Structures are given as C-alpha cells and as structure tokens.
Amino acid sequence: MIESLSAIAAARLGPLAETTPTTSTVKPGDFASALAEGANNMADQIAQADKTSMAALSGQAGPREVAETVMTAEQSLQTAIAVRDKLVNAFLDISRMQI
C-alpha cells in the first residue's frame, strides 16, 4: 500500500518529486531571478515536506521530522503569498496613478 501511495505522490508531483535544494544564483539587482529562486525554494520545501510525510507513512520518519518539514513548507508558502499580495498591491497602485 505504501508503494502505491508513493507512486501516486510521485505522479502528482512530477519533476518536483526528485528535487533537491539549490544554491543561490541570484545576481545583484536582478529582481526576476530573485523571485524565481524564491519560488523554486518554496517548491523544494513543499516537495521535501511531502517526501517526509510519505516516509512517515512507511515508518522511516518520525512525527517530529514531519512537523518540522511541514511547518517550514507552510512558512515558505505564507511568505510567497505575502510577496504576491505586495506585488498585486503595487501593480494596483501604479495602475491608479494619473498620467
């Protein structure tokens, strides 16, 4: 049963299932690269939380490890949502400016 759950998770995540954290490649002053790296790091942390959860189902990880990785992934997701909200608000402020 665990194998079928792992197969379902791997199919659902696709390329995220085998990701590993990357090193920083942001060039100074390159905002688009910083956003892309942040999004990649968030996806990596979510994938790691999923892997740890699946490992816990098979008895290979403890509840503490699962809680730590899930909380880290949740924190990353909350940060990404906050950045998205700030970007949307900035866009709306710019679009309301009179020319």
SSE layout and pairings?
Blueprint (H helix, E strand, L loop, with lengths): L1 H12 L17 H27 L5 H34 L3
Please tell me about this protein's structure:
With 99 residues, the protein is an all-alpha fold. The chain has one domain. Helices cover 74% and strands 0% of the residues. It is built from 3 helices and no strands. Helix 2 packs antiparallel against helix 3. The longest helix is centred in the last third of the chain and has 34 residues. It is elongated, with a radius of gyration of 18 Å. The termini are far apart. About 7% of the residues have low confidence.
What would the keywords be for this entry?
99 residues; 3 helices; elongated
Gross morphology: elongated
How many domains? 1
Mean residue pLDDT:
80
pLDDT < 50 stretches = 15-21
Radius of gyration: 18 Å
The level of helicity is over 70%
Total helical segments: 3
The SSE string, one letter per element, is HHH
GO molecular function, one term: cytoskeletal motor activity
Organism: Notoacmeibacter ruber
GO cellular component, one term: bacterial-type flagellum basal body
Subcellular location: Bacterial flagellum basal body
Brief sketch in words of this structure:
By secondary structure, the chain is mainly alpha-helical. It has helices at 2-13, 31-57, 63-96. 74% of the residues lie in helices and 0% in strands.
